[in-house]
Amino acid sequence: MNPKPNIVNLPVYKPGKPIEEVKKELGLNDVIKLASNENPYGSSPNAKAAILAELDNLYLYPDGSAAELTSALADHLGVRNDNIIFGCGSDEIIALIARAFFLPGDETIMADQTFSVYKSNADIEGAVSIEVPLANGTHDLGAMLAQVTERTKVIWICNPNNPTGTIVPEEALITFLNAVPAGVMVVLDEAYCEYVTDLSYSNGIKLLESYPNLVVLRTFSKIYGLAALRIGYGVASPQIISLINKVREPFNTSRLAQAGALAALADQEYVQECRRLNSAGILQLQAEFKRLDLAFFPAHGNFIMVDVRKPAAEIFDALLRRGIIVRAGHKLYPTYIRVTVGSAEQNKAFIAALEQVLQEQGVQV
């Protein structure tokens, strides 16, 4: 069988190593995973209870329109029901946008070091990805704007950016949106927005009324702690949502995911506590990195990208053998690792292991 020519060399997405795999491979009993930006505190107890209550309904198909969850989320965000679409994680919304809007030869603009799923889905549809270098780890909006042509369909902005954790301030984003042609879609990926405490950060939802070409992506995988259930969403004009819906599979989110997300959304007190603990964890890690004389990018999500001053793959392997899973392999930052902000105890264990590894590697700390 002959596949599409444009997917032959498409790389397969590599998630963070699973805890179970590391335990089995290395014979470890205790492993801390700080590789996939998961919430170390898990989900709201209310979400767990709602999921358990839904187990009796596993024989029933889910509500394809997620009507109850849509209504609750619309109230929470201050938008209309027809502004929202749900997906199997926000990743699926990215794939649906690519499926609905890209024709072979169309161009799409993104940062050169950002969430890889933007480019992979563009590649699948035969679109041409224009990758613009980050400036100090942050989206260079002026340079991205300079790449817009009559062939440009979509511009992707990950805010906070994954993997660097930097943000585009609201003022800069608005200036950019004012300059983007009305016929070019701007996708603002705010997967980590609930973690941000910086007052200069924008709320993409509030910008939708002024910019009908804007799509905002968010998820229940991060601060809500429902990564295993795979549920995210997009918010945009009814016209855009209607077009994306045309290429969506009928039952793309499960009953358990919808029930868990509905209960998690209602427990904003839990969300606030997770944000507080994450902010404390960022300060904890930043203080330790300064003590070890390690440079790092400003952290605004629930992860930090830090320069370990040695090939990141070597540090990754050495940490792995000590039961600490982080993320390496960022092509433009070969000496940087990305580490999820864990609990205070997890962060302490990571720093102890990192300091030991660096000393063994001859890094002055």
Automatic annotation (TrEMBL):
Essential cofactor(s): pyridoxal 5'-phosphate
Pfam hit, one: Aminotran_1_2
Modified residues (N6-(pyridoxal phosphate)lysine): K222
SUPFAM superfamilies the record matches: PLP-dependent transferases
Gene Ontology molecular function terms on file: histidinol-phosphate transaminase activity; pyridoxal phosphate binding
Location of the Aminotransferase class I/classII large domain: 30-354
Pathway: Amino-acid biosynthesis; L-histidine biosynthesis; L-histidine from 5-phospho-alpha-D-ribose 1-diphosphate: step 7/9
GO biological process: L-histidine biosynthetic process
Assembly: Homodimer.
Cited PANTHER family: HISTIDINOL-PHOSPHATE AMINOTRANSFERASE, HISTIDINOL-PHOSPHATE AMINOTRANSFERASE 2
Family label: Belongs to the class-II pyridoxal-phosphate-dependent aminotransferase family. Histidinol-phosphate aminotransferase subfamily.
Protein name (Swiss-Prot/TrEMBL): Histidinol-phosphate aminotransferase
Record organism: Paenibacillus jilunlii
Name of the gene encoding the protein in the UniProt record: hisC
